[in-house]
Amino acid sequence: MANDIGPIGVFDSGYGGLTILRQIRSLMPQYDFLYLGDNARAPYGERSFEVVYEFTRQAVRYLFQQGCHLIILACNTASAKALRTIQQVDLKKIDPKRRVLGVIRPTVEVVGSLSKTRHVGIMATDGTIRSKTYELEIAKQSPDIKVTGEACPMWVPLVENDEYDSPGADYFVRERIESLLSRDPLIDNVILGCTHYPLLLGKIQKFMPEGVNIIEQGGYVAQSLKDYLSRHPEIEERVTKGGSVRLLTTERAELFQEKATIFMGEALNAERVQL
Ligand code: DGL
How much is the pLDDT for 118? Predict the structure, then answer.
């Protein structure tokens, strides 16, 4: 790991992290980005703590080897289950000067100022909900907020299998929203706590009652990264500034390239890699 300068690494289990990359890139187009989607092993949502941690650690090591000094885990499941151990244990061994950041903290920071009823819902993968990370982080910032989590196990497979626009997806989106709001009808803000979910936004908006605000993470994560880089010039100077995006996937490159090009709105190449 000799490079002392490289792109910002962005990691997700699959396509979801592109929703974060798109926002980061629109706010900070000057930087180089290296995106890694572990599509071959997605979804991560129902996997155990140990497996999510191991897969995420492999991805982080790989991105470090490619020259990244700063990595964003653009995946709530990995942020919930692996980030802390990677920050506290692995970074010390690998290279204490490198940084790995997640997506949960920047999202949670805005909830206190948005909710009037002080009742907030989280829609996320089973792993994220079970970890209770959102509850714990919100309690630190806004202890008066009541948090209700709803696991949506079908939503990531709908995105990974290209079914997010299909009429069949309506059923799965609607039933989870109804379930969440029946458990706490006072909810006035719902966090989409999975980076895949913005790809289902059209359907989520269709079934979310008026008056319930949908919180998407991308913009908040991008702003928080910008603030972080301005507070940490020692990290910022280790990021290359060529305005490029390189995409890596552990599954079929052509498929990834096709979807990413549509989603990011620019022609992009993808390469297949093995972790
Ligand atoms: N996009 C990820 C998240 O934000 C993971 C989804 C999955 O692989 O289940 O949680």
Answer: 98
Q: Are residues 132 and 185 in the same domain?
A: yes
100-109 residue pLDDT tens: 999 999 999 9
Q: Which residues contact 154 (CB under 8 A, 6 or more apart)?
A: 172, 176
Q: Which of 72, 75, 82, 129 is catalytic?
A: 75
Considering the domain architecture, whether residues 160 and 113 belong to the same structural domain is answered as yes
Per the structure, how many domains does the chain have?
Answer: 2
> Of 156, 104, 106, whose CA–CA distance to 135 is shortest?
104
What is the C-alpha separation between 98 and 247, in angstroms, rounded?
21
CA–CA separation, 251 vs 80, rounded Å?
24
pTM over 0.70, yes/no: yes
All residues at 6 or more sequence positions from 138 whose CB lies less than 8 Å from its CB, including other chains: 108, 111, 120, 145, 147
Residue 82 CB–ligand 1 contact under 6 Å: no
pLDDT digits (tens, 9 = 90+) for 22-67: 999 999 999 999 999 999 999 999 999 999 999 999 999 999 999 9
Spacing, Cα 268 to ligand 1 middle (Å): 22
251 assigned to some structural domain = yes
Helix (H, G, I), strand (E, B) or coil at 133: helix
Neighbour count for residue 166 (Cβ, 10 Å): 11
The residue whose CA is least distant from atom 2 of ligand 1 is 75
In one-letter notation, the amino acid at residue 19 is T
163 phi/psi in degrees, rounded to 5: -110, 10
Of 70, 169, 194, 247, catalytic: 194
Nearest by Cα to 256 from 53, 36, 8: 36
Residues 110, 201: one domain? Answer: yes
Token pair for residue 3?
């490079």
